[in-house]
Amino acid sequence: MGICASISSSVIHDDTYGHENAVYYRGTVSLNANESQRIGSTYSHTGSKGLNQDSAILFQGYGIEDGALGAVFDGHGKNGHIVSKIVRNRLPSLLLSQRNGIAKISPSAVSTKQSERLESDQLGPSKNFLKWKEACVSAFKVMDKEIKLLDSLDCSCSGTTASVVVKQGEDLVIANLGDSRAVLGTRTENGIRAVQLTTDFKPGVPSEAERIRKCKGRVLA
């Protein structure tokens, strides 16, 4: 199945996106010469496994006028389809609120070690990367706690992956959990090439299995 929905509002509400699997959301932006370049789409296709537990969102005008957020969530377990939609509906606003909160902190709060790590990772001169990184980690943790505190939902054996791509100007910030992927399509001399931007985190990978167990998770495979 697939759906494309457009909403004219710059305010994010938890129930804005409804119950569709894939949604397109557009904040209020001014018309300009580059308006025709704001092209995007979302699509979700039901496979042969039964219930479609995927959720996705594309948000144009996220954070800043030329910003965007694209995210996919693949639920698993009995209530995975519910969890993926809850996270899809809530995480964009949660992430932005975390980012705005961090932006109010003095730049001196960024430690020397963080600055050195940024340089060693060769992530370029973007001054916003550390703030977005902290916002992503914080938002993911808060989202996890909120899911666990839902009295109306048993998520003890359910959850969702998350792959989130945030575009702010010329910068891309990518955060992911699980094995959903973010893939960049780029033109080369030999045609269009797909470049995977994320690393799959699966329990079959020894380091990931160890991390899950340290977090008091269960590895059944």
Automatic annotation (TrEMBL):
Give the molecular function GO annotations.
protein serine/threonine phosphatase activity
Q: Where is the PPM-type phosphatase domain?
A: 38-221
Transmembrane annotation, as ranges: none
Q: Which SUPFAM superfamilies match?
A: PP2C-like
Q: Which InterPro entries match?
A: PP2C, PPM-type-like_dom_sf, PPM-type_phosphatase-like_dom
Name of the protein described by the UniProt record: PPM-type phosphatase domain-containing protein
Q: Which domain of life is it from?
A: Eukaryota
Q: Which Gene3D superfamilies match?
A: PPM-type phosphatase domain (3.60.40.10)
